[in-house]
Design goal:
CATH superfamily of chain B: Oxidoreductase, molybdopterin-binding domain
Radius of gyration of chain A: 19 Å
Shape of chain B: globular
Number of helices of chain A: 9
Distance between the termini of chain B: 38 Å
GO cellular component, one term (chain A): plasma membrane
Largest interface: A-B, 26 and 27 residues
CATH topology of chain B: Sulfite Oxidase, Chain A, domain 2
Main location (chain A): membrane
Cofactor (chain A): heme b; FMN
GO molecular function, one term (chain A): oxidoreductase activity, acting on diphenols and related substances as donors
Number of helices of chain B: 6
Oligomer: heterodimer
Radius of gyration of chain B: 17 Å
Largest sheet of chain A: none
Strand content of chain B: 15-25%
Organism (chain A): Undibacterium terreum
CATH architecture of chain A: Up-down Bundle
CATH class of chain A: Mainly Alpha
Chain lengths: 209, 267
Amino acid sequence: MINPTPKQISILKSILFVLALLPFVRLVAFVFLDRLGANPVEFITRNTGDWTLYFLCITLGVTPLRKLSKWNWLIKLRRMIGLYAFFYATLHFTTFLWFDHFFDVAEMWKDVVKRPFITVGFIAFVLLIPLAVTSTNGMVKRLGGKRWLWIHRLVYLIAPLGILHYFWMKAGKHDFAQPFLFGAIVAALLALRLVWRWQGKRVQQRAAA
Amino acid sequence: TKLAAAANPAYMLIEKKTAYKDATTYNNFYEFGTDKAEPAQNAGTLKTRPWSISIEGEVKKPMTLDIDSLMKLAPMEERVYRLRCVEGWSMVIPWIGYSLSNLIKKAEPTGNAKFIEFVTLEDKKQMPGQRRAVLEWPYVEGLRMDEANHPLALLTFGMYGEVLPNQNGAPVRIIVPWKYGFKSVKSIVKIRFSKEQPKTAWNLAAANEYGFYSNVNPDVDHPRWSQATERRIGEDGIFTKKRKTLMFNGYNEVAPLYAGMDLKKFY
């Protein structure tokens, strides 16, 4: 079994930090190299949206992978991955507010209220904020593990909302292949949790009997 | 391949033309993939010769015209048109062709002909995107007779002084500049005159989002986004505010076609 030392974990974290930043670095480089294609705003919007979903999926994948591999140390990487999901979601939202609406908050708000796919995306983004805010060790202590856990279970709602947002956006183009793929991955990751919970309960019941 | 045409001074815009590269690498042509970069990558499989168009339905003389005789039907003109996509972006493109009305006259529609239907080629070998049921194939779009006869409606064979690249709808397409781009059918193999309003591809796919008329109209939003503004490809950078969309894409001369019609209802 792989069991890295604290020092190795911190090296691993640094590597992860740089890797997860690469999509953003690429995007910035593309801005300066004029490689965003004919419709730069569309490119940035889609790219940051995609990476938000990727990181949400990876975050949700940590626990199943940890259980299956018995690599418990994986949990130490989860916070950073989750924060990166928030980072890309923030870029995605900023693109919408800045490049699409030019900080015309009234206009933006009209869009949010009027268009369900934007409403859903906006709710998902807002729900991510408390998770990011309470991600520090200090906050975990202050809230207590149980309450903290409840807040962070919001991700089970956020990920499906994010996919619904994507699905609705693609619906106009009648192109469901990618949203279905994301949906299947998230559904599988959530279903695994339900199965484990259910098994855990049965074990407890048997022990009690 | 070069395509000779005389510039028609009635249809020259003072706006800056979209770069050839943008106009030929950023395309919606689902027959070659739903990503906008895909048509340029995949359209090499389309064979544009030999090519013919069949003219059917409510006409006195149903016929099949091969592409070369079709190209000789009327003198080629160059016209610079704004192109507004339903997705909220626009381009300015110098097209080459002649008014569609020339072909309609030749076909001699009967008194029953109220609409015209345009049909794109259907062939999974040449058009790999048709292997996926993204839309009902073949792609069908239509116009009302008076719309099709409007001098602005262009039967199009070229752009930027050359024949159409495959990804832009070679060898022949229409351009209806006062309507959203998806009304301008590409790679046409059939033109059918009919009594009834044709069942069009996007209207079948999502009637609440894509109406039969689909005139460019800043006051009628798409259910999922506003149509009040647009981004001009290649010109409006990420730090530029989007520009206002004009009624009928700025082609007010078509307004009489819709006199007395509620364009919010007939979107």
